[in-house]
Design a protein that fits this description.
Length: 445
């Protein structure tokens, strides 16, 4: 009610404002509605099975039967005398006698009881009654424009320009995120906790081939599992925001573009900070190869993946009916990403019919980028079973040789292409989200 009144409407529409409230709270709400009406503002309110205290507060009643047919539209009168008198007269005109309204009986209950009788068609009686004809004439008269009036027009569809919409949407969402510790604090705490859990399991140096494969598993587990967590956390938050979006879009508060863009603009600083904290914790405890370039490369690919999965979760909420369905579909994507990224199944061992999932998989480009940038220029000698000459870790993990660990699929030269591919994935998922916001609406009423 307060949000609607902020727009200073000439008519206030309320849909079941007392639903779910006890009798005292419902009476408080109705008294507030009566005070609004007393200030000179028209209030149209739907209400189901009210008590007498609530029912008697209203001035006029529009009573509808199943099918949307009008049974009564007029004043209630003192102690509902106008309503009771009309129904009694209408029943007599139809040749039917209504049971009298007993003392202490709620007129609303009596009204619903007598109107449920199939003997008398009160909607037909209303159409033929003087009251019904009078109301019809008033509606027809109200539809005739004043000869001196001009059509109501607006220069723009929305009250403010696009830049103001972007600014206000971002400001509001930033305040919402700042006031949502249940969303952001767990993401930070989980990032720190899991960084040290994973790190404590991989503190050793890479001395041989087995250790290098374990280090690849560490890269896969940290990045992939964090992406799953970020996606699952984002889904219920976006589901709550979606409900308000439907209401505000119907009121023409803003365009879809500024609203969707605000999630990108506001979410990114949090993701940048959380990902930097996670990677810094990992590098502080795990014996990763030194170099600021390796830190930045690892962070870039980790940040890209958790960002992409966060926005994928938001897209699924917008595109699907509810967040339970979104979580189920997201779990399917997690399985596909894990299976076809090149770690669970070697790239050369993926069946040709499923090869497209390897190239359409963002986890593939993230894992490749992390592996080749971390093992690049690592000249430690290793012995590879089945190969006669000695290899370096850099050559075995990052070269395009067909007998390398990745059969030449993961190479150092792909690192920039991997970043570009992830940016394309990111832009695609944001565009799909805007399209879903524009074309899809799961409005139940």
């Amino acid at each position: 009610m307060a949000v609607e009144l902020a727009a200073n409407p000439s008519i206030l529409f309320l849909d079941e404002p007392t639903s779910g409230l006890d009798s005292r709270a419902a009476l408080v709400v109705i008294r507030a509605v009566a005070n609004i009406s007393a200030s000179g503002r028209s209030v149209i309110c739907t209400i189901h099975q009210p008590s007498y205290a609530l029912f008697s507060t209203f001035d006029y009643l529009l009573l509808l039967k199943k099918g949307g047919h009008t049974v009564y539209f007029g004043p209630l009168g003192n102690e509902c005398s106008a309503l009771v008198g009309y129904l009694n007269d209408a029943a007599k005109d139809l040749g039917y006698e209504l049971p009298p309204l007993q003392g202490g009986t709620n007129p609303a209950t009596w009204m619903l009881t007598v109107c449920e009788q199939k003997v008398a068609d009160f909607s037909l009686a209303y159409q033929n009654s003087p009251l019904g004809k009078h109301n019809t004439d008033q509606v027809a008269q109200a539809q005739i424009p004043d000869p001196q009036s001009e059509p109501l027009t607006f220069d723009t569809e929305f009250a403010v320009d696009d830049m103001t919409q972007y600014f206000l949407c971002c400001k509001r969402l930033a305040i919402t995120y700042w006031r949502s510790p249940a969303y952001n604090v767990p993401r930070l705490m989980v990032s720190i906790f899991l960084a040290y859990v994973y790190g404590s399991c991989y503190m050793y140096k890479v001395d041989d081939l087995s250790d290098s494969v374990s280090r690849v598993a560490f890269m896969f587990m940290t990045t992939f599992n964090q992406g799953v967590i970020y996606c699952n956390v984002a889904i219920p938050v976006m589901a709550a925001e979606r409900a308000s979006f439907y209401r505000e879009r119907a009121s023409r508060f803003y365009k879809v573009g500024p609203y969707a863009a605000s999630f990108t603009i506001v979410e990114l600083p949090f993701l940048i900070f959380f990902s930097l904290v996670f990677v810094a914790c990992v590098f502080s405890i795990v014996d990763m190869y030194s170099g600021i370039d390796k830190f930045l490369w690892y962070w870039a690919f980790y940040f890209s993946y958790v960002t992409l999965l966060t926005f994928m979760g938001q897209f699924l909420v917008v595109a699907l009916p509810n967040f339970e369905t979104a979580q189920s579909v997201a779990s399917t994507f997690f399985s596909i990403f894990a299976c076809f990224c090149g770690f669970t199944i070697a790239p050369d061992d993926i069946p040709s019919g499923w090869k497209f999932l390897f190239y359409a998989n963002p986890a593939h480009y993230v894992l490749e980028g992390q592996v080749v940038t971390q093992f690049r220029n690592v000249h430690q000698k290793i012995i590879v079973p089945g190969l006669s000459d000695e290899w370096t870790l850099s050559r075995y993990m990052t070269s395009g040789n067909s007998d390398s660990y990745w059969s030449g699929v993961y190479t150092w030269g792909h690192r920039y292409g991997n970043i570009v591919t992830l940016i394309i994935f990111f832009c695609g998922i944001r565009f799909a989200t805007i399209l879903a916001f524009t074309k899809i609406a799961y409005v139940t009423r």
